[in-house]
Amino acid sequence: MLSLPALTSDITVAVAPGAKLTEAVRRPVEPVGKDFMHHATRTLRNHTWSEFEKIQAEKNVKTVDESNVDPDELLFDTELADETLLAHDARDWKTADLYAAMGLSQLRYKATDNQIIKAHRKQVVKYHPDKQSAAGNSLDQDGFFKIIQKAFETLTDKNKRKQYDSCDFVADVEPPKKGSEYDFFEAWAPVFASEARFSKKTPVPELGTLETDQKTVEQFYGFWHRFDSWRTFEFLDEDVPDDSSNRDHKRYIERKNKAARDKKKTADNARLVKLVERAMNEDPRIKMFKDAEKKEKERKKWEAGAAARAEAEAKAKAEAEAKAKAEADAAAAVSAKADKKKAKEAAKAAKKKNKRSIRNAGKDNDYFGDAADAAAIDEQIALIVDSLDDEQLVEVAEKVKADAASAKAALQEAAKGFVASGKLTASLVAYFA
Amino acid sequence: MSSPILGISFGNTSSSIAYINPKNDVDVIANPDGERAIPSVLSYVGEDEYHGGQALQQLVRNPANTIINFRDFIGKSFADCDTSRCAAGAPAIDIDGKVGFAIKRGDDVEERITVDEVVSRHLNRLKLAAEDYIGQTIAATVLTVPTDFTQAQKDALAASAAKVGLKIVQFVAEPSASLLAHAHSFPLNKSGDANVVVADFGGVRSDAAVIAVRSGIYTVLATTHDYNLGGDALDAELVEYFAKDFEKKNHCNPRKNARSLAKLRTNAITTKKTLSNATTATISVESLCDGFDYHTSINRMRYELTAGKVFSQFAAFVTAAIEKAQLDPLDIDAVLLCGGVSFTPKLAANLEFLLPETVAILGPQHAEATNYPNELACQGAALQGRLVADYDDDELKEAMQPVVLNTMHLQRAIGLLDGAGEFVPVILPETSYPVQKSILVRAAKGDLLVGVYEGESHIEERTLEPEAKDAAAEDDEDSEEWSDDEPEVVREKHYKAAQKLIELGVKGVEKGVEIVFNINKDAVLRVTVRDLKSGAVVQGHL
């Protein structure tokens, strides 16, 4: 065993002055083996040692993934979990960790029947007395092998396994210490998972996460409050003497066992109740739900007082609306009046324009070729214009705008109409009549 | 997966083939006759070609057409070859400056085949045997060659192999291959660092190589070869013994008649092999000479005495190799025996006697060594084949460049001073760098000083009181005359710190420290001390 000398002076790193490695010699190495190929890769790629180790490690992970190892094998212990088991007295096998003896210390109650058979075979191959004697141990050092056999017997019998699992306190997960800081879900999920193994009812609801809804959480705690456990403590019974000589003593032991069993069961139930109670008290979701409930109540209370407030509000609103409406109406009336005036003026302007265009019809159309009668034509047109009512005015003005012939025709038509109706005498409009 | 890369060890006397089977085990392939050590013999009777054990049997009846011991001739000119070793079989002739053989096929048809062609045919037979066994065509192989094979010889081998559709991916030196195979099944020691003598005792020649193993990298420190020492020398001693015995009984000399001699030799070989496993063996030859039968039994002791001279030559051969590497036997951690002769228990016994107790003699009698030392080389080749199968040709070519192969090797150990002030080597001499080594000091506690030193080893000799029991001796095997009264010299290897390099101080260690030594390619030594509990790191570099 290598030991190191004690530090005498206060140094961290001291390189001896002038220290140099002795001159090295260049020699060829043999190009064989895995280590040479590694050396070659390192040299060619210029990897440092640590870089190369990292790359190799990554590669190794991949090869492990690809290799077709029995997945069960990976779950078994590679070496004995508890070395003291080797020296354990086989007669006291009940106090030994049977799962550890089988190499199932990781799986424990989760181990399937198939896994138990496989693990047993593996342990037997390793610890069979014949194998051990080949390794130099004497043949009668078979205590551990006997424990393995007992473990196999216990774990493959459904009833016996239940009894053993009940008393497998190693598999129990302790709840977090009171008052210590921890993540609720991280700390409690394994506790409930381990307790769940004793449930008669399956499936057992899971603890869930912070996001789980209230109903599920309530169901969860409801389940645990009404938890129905098959846990039994027969495994811890005192051995009942097998001889028939003392029946009274036998019965006495049996009674004692039963009493102890019941006591333990009651204690276990009480423990569980306490555990669930504590979890519930510490559950942040329960706190959250309580807070939410409180808020809801406050909201409702506020709502109840709200009716009267709403009425007053509605009244004020109606008043404001009415006022606004009146204002709007007044404004509309003013604007309508202005509009009317404007239209009237526009009509007047149009009439004026029409009259002017008809009056100018003679002049514009070179007096229809009779320039000599220009004065008479203008006079007669003026008469016609004055006689025309509003509608006719628009009509005639429209026609007059087109060309000389239609202007003349329109004027003639209007003149004839007036003559016929007696409004004008024919002589006054001789040119058109 | 495409067809596997075959590992072939091609010897003068026998060849072996191996591959890595789908279960990732090394599988040595037996030929259709069930031989795993396939005799490197070809024999021709008319149109028929015989190979392996069947050809070897022809050596008695048909020696002129039976080609033996041809491996070493490849790629060499006729003048450079010692053709006398083929005397028992087809005589070697000169074909265009190369070694060749004239074979009679049929009554007056003579075929002149060069050694290149013979090697091609031999490799083809091995390839067919492997294909039969695996059920896939084989296209690539890793071939082992002795350390003294020249590039020209390797090229000739590659050409011969290419002729029968075998691509030689890599040539591997025989001792490296053997050591690779050994280390694959029996890791050398905890640190993985060792100096190993790989002694390959074949049929007609012996080779030894002193290999320094440092973190899985092999460096050959020295090689020795003896082209006349081998299993055949043992056979010759046995044949001589039997011939004398026969002559005394029957007044007829079997050595004069080539056929009698061949018969006697064949049976002597069988007897020799039996004696490796049993303490007595019988030899029985019908009509050995002049119609006289020969039947006698011989025990192992008699055989060992008869061949004692040869055995001591074997042992001396190993010590010569150690000397050539300028090492002391105490520097050696193990002697790995390979080749057919290694089966003989006397060989290991002699070496155990000659070398200090610290040297493990890894022969078939050793618990931590293979039972088939003659298969090590081809197993190593197969392992290397499996390894290089993951690399493509360019990568391999790159890896074989001199710039990769030639690396710097430390000449002195680097280590620590322990609590008692003794130097503890961590990186041994002949370690090639870049390298990284780490050691755990679990017992470390409190404030500690990590003194990094360069160390020197020396051999200390002490004379023990006469009554102490003997452990080491310089004498030969005549141990009967050994008297306990002689003062005994105990030799031990010690290190002492020679040069102080770096001192590191760590404080408040609770659960031990890990000390990592790293030398990068520029020879910069970096020592890192890491507290296992707190993870605090102190680093110093040179």
From TrEMBL, chain A:
Region span, Disordered: 332-366
Do the record's keywords include Cytoplasm? yes
**Single GO MF descriptor:** ribosome binding
Q: Where in the cell is it found?
A: Cytoplasm
Domain J, chain residue ranges per copy: 97-168
Principal subcellular localisation of the protein? cytoplasm
Q: Name one GO biological process term.
A: regulation of translational fidelity
Listed Pfam families: DnaJ, RAC_head, ZUO1-like_ZHD, Zuotin_N
Which CDD domains does the UniProt entry name for this protein? Answer: DnaJ, zuotin_NTD
Q: Extract one GO cellular component term from the record.
A: cytosol
Q: TM spans, by residue?
A: none
Its recorded name reads Zuotin
UniProtKB/TrEMBL annotation, chain B:
- Annotated Acidic residues bias: 473-487
GO cellular component terms given for this protein: cytosol; nucleus
Please state what the protein is called.
Answer: Ssz1 protein
Q: Which domain of life is it from?
A: Eukaryota
Which residues lie in coiled coils? none
Species: Maudiozyma humilis (Sour dough yeast)
Gene Ontology molecular function terms on file: ATP binding; ATP-dependent protein folding chaperone
Stretches for region Disordered: 464-490
Keyword list (alphabetical) reads: ATP-binding, Nucleotide-binding
Q: Which PANTHER family match?
A: HEAT SHOCK PROTEIN PDR13, HSC70CB, ISOFORM G-RELATED
Q: Which family does it belong to?
A: Belongs to the heat shock protein 70 family.
